[in-house]
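ok so heres the complex, two chains, lmk if somethin looks off
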Amino acid sequence: MISKNKISDIRKLHQKKFRDAEQLFIVEGRKCVEALLQSDFEVLDIYATEANAKENQHLLGKRQVTLVTDAEMERISTLSTPPALLAVARQSTRRVNIPDEEPVLVLDRIADPGNLGTIARTADWFNIRHIVCSPDCVEFYSPKTIQATMGSFAHVHVQYRPLVPYLREQSSRRRVLGAFLAGESIRSFGFQSSDIIVIGSESHGISPEVEECVTRKITIPSVHTGPDTAESLNAAVATAILLYQAAAKF
Amino acid sequence: MISKNKISDIRKLHQKKFRDAEQLFIVEGRKCVEALLQSDFEVLDIYATEANAKENQHLLGKRQVTLVTDAEMERISTLSTPPALLAVARQSTRRVNIPDEEPVLVLDRIADPGNLGTIARTADWFNIRHIVCSPDCVEFYSPKTIQATMGSFAHVHVQYRPLVPYLREQSSRRRVLGAFLAGESIRSFGFQSSDIIVIGSESHGISPEVEECVTRKITIPSVHTGPDTAESLNAAVATAILLYQAAAKF
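and the predicted structre for the whole thing:
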């Protein structure tokens, strides 16, 4: 049973200001909830219909599940098709120290929640555990981002911090690679596992202040044939190709 | 000036059934309209506010533009932030013959409009001109897909056809490569420009019938470290990495 107040509390978490204030977030769908339960995140509540709670018994184990009706699940969910499972969890405030020899992905003003989630998922695939976002990147704990990670939100450490002081400090010990439309081709670039890779925003690329912190400019070569060519790649796609190429050298 | 009837006609094109019936589609935003105007697509109408028509004079040239108010643009647009330019164009029914030596990207049941558009944009970047979609792929002319192509919709040829007879027929002359979670690593795979590359749906991968037509299974190797790894990649991301690697050999 779920009270009207509880429904209203969960619905508030659909909005960023309440997520910020409560330091909570919503996790939806079987795969994402499974990843959540296997992680260090503090889980406050799990919701499921009776049928779905039974069907997912193997994931839920002995955890307490609040049973809801289809209509209630529809109300608390942010998705147009309500998920089998929905959980509320506490945002992580753990500050992870990033070892100097581990690669770092830096995101400058990524604006699309789906892109941010897809990027985290891809980083996870290539075993890149550290993502540093500029303060004006879209929120990692937004339901769309969490959804797009397909569970990888639980495997990567994401922190928000001003990029210029961070990169200035790092650049004494590590190379800071920035993805631009013109630069050294990544096909022949000698990536190192200590590299920091900076990706810019969907519409404006890397900001001028951050560009000044970049020590090497790299690019994904297009196959040119004339004016009829794409001018750029989607930010999540560009990140994926870079990480694929870089991971070959790690 | 735009009539109420015209506004209603354009708003109908927000829905697939009317796009199908009229064989028309909507193109929104400066970049996409620019690509449209440089293409062979038949353009029926262009809409802009007076300010935006002036500002984009260099793109529009001598073409007739219907001036609209901000409120009218908001009504005819599918976007939450109305675009500077909006055009209505005729869908292409041109059947392109694909030369045997040109690579083909085959999409099996891609369901997300953003993914389809991003895939077309990436294919364009790597100069892959031919995309063959299964009939149950999402519609290429949906506004979300067109938007996600960032203009590349005008550079790639997309056709919908049943995949099994198509691939059976092709496999006598070309290799049919399918992207799976297990297969030959693409890092060392000898791609050929005559290859057909098949990508499966976001949730279910390549369907069993299509799998039977695949002559080589290929995979994007993940960097494994334990259970805490992403189980798969986003479909547009996987396609991008494949095309990047394949394009190196074309």
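quick notes: The CA atoms of residues 191 and 246 of chain A lie 5 Å apart. thats all i got rn
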